[in-house]
Specification:
By secondary structure, the chain is α+β, with helices and mostly antiparallel strands. Helix content is about 50%, strand content about 25%. The chain has 2 domains: about 140 residues, Immunoglobulin-like (Sandwich); about 100 residues, no CATH class. It is built from 5 helices and 7 strands. Strands 1, 2, 3, 4, 5, 6 and 7 form a 7-stranded mixed beta sheet that branches.
């Protein structure tokens, strides 16, 4: 009996899930560039104009596929669509990438699950040379409408208290990291000027760490200009280590002076 009830509940959930997505209809109106077989230049945007009708707030995603697998490339995100109207999706291709169909999926505004709404067969190839072309007016119009839809949704659904708190915590964390990194760069120089004896020698250790990191970056770039593309983060990490050491030294020095 209990097993039968569980099966009924699972079936009802599946029907409800499928019915919710079935209420969203999507149709491909046109593409840019148009054509059944198109070559686009490297990172030139391929745009898809869509018509939609939905009974619930919905997101719409446009993804390129080739031989049953999604093509790994940059694709557009989605604002939340309501009612009916037109939408736009886009992606680009790297040289040599191919597409044999475009899959348009839909998903509720507050859910991660998606359902395939429609497929659009097309042969696309990523070329190595950019192809000059003018965008049709509907691209700018639909992008503007998407921005307006997003602004309207955000105005009607402001972040919850938890979301605001999370944003403040994230901002505070980033600020603390940057502050500690800056402290680690400046504090050793200040300590070298104001401290004396063994404390001055100890303050030279964090400074030596930063100097070694800078030397490593300069030597690496001299041999390979691309070896330290993220050098600001390397300097920041060294500054954080230096900052932590300087705080420890400052606390130890203060403790020793009180005891003395």
């Amino acid at each position: 009996m209990h097993r039968t009830a569980l099966w009924c509940l699972a079936l009802a959930a599946c029907l409800a899930w499928g019915g919710a997505h079935a209420e969203t209809k999507v149709e491909v109106l046109e593409t840019h560039p148009a054509g059944e077989s198109v070559t686009i230049g490297p990172r030139q945007v391929y745009s898809v104009r869509l018509a939609f009708s939905t009974a619930e707030p919905t997101r719409i995603w446009v993804r390129p596929w080739y031989r049953g697998e999604e093509v790994p490339t940059a694709t557009s995100g989605s604002v939340i669509y309501e009612g009916s109207g037109e939408a736009i999706g886009w992606f680009w291709l790297e040289p040599g990438q191919q597409v044999d169909e475009i899959r348009i999926s839909v998903g509720g505004a507050g859910r991660r699950d998606t359902a395939l709404a429609v497929t659009h067969p097309v042969r696309l190839t990523g070329g190595s040379v950019a192809v000059p072309r003018a965008d049709p007016p509907w691209i700018a119009r639909l992008k503007q409408e998407a921005e307006e839809r997003d602004a309207s949704w955000q105005a009607r659904h402001p972040p919850s208290g938890f979301g605001v708190l999370g944003g403040l915590l994230a901002t505070g964390f980033v600020g603390a990291v940057l502050g500690l990194g800056l402290l680690g760069i400046v504090a050793p120089f200040v300590a070298l000027r104001r401290w004396s004896g063994g404390w001055r020698l100890a303050a030279a250790v964090p400074l030596a760490i930063i100097a070694l990191v800078l030397l490593n970056i300069m030597v690496g770039v001299a041999f390979d200009p691309t070896s330290h593309n993220l050098f600001p983060f390397e300097i920041l990490m060294a500054g954080m280590v230096s900052g932590g050491l300087m705080i420890a030294l400052w606390l130890a020095r203060r403790f020793m002076r009180k005891r003395g």
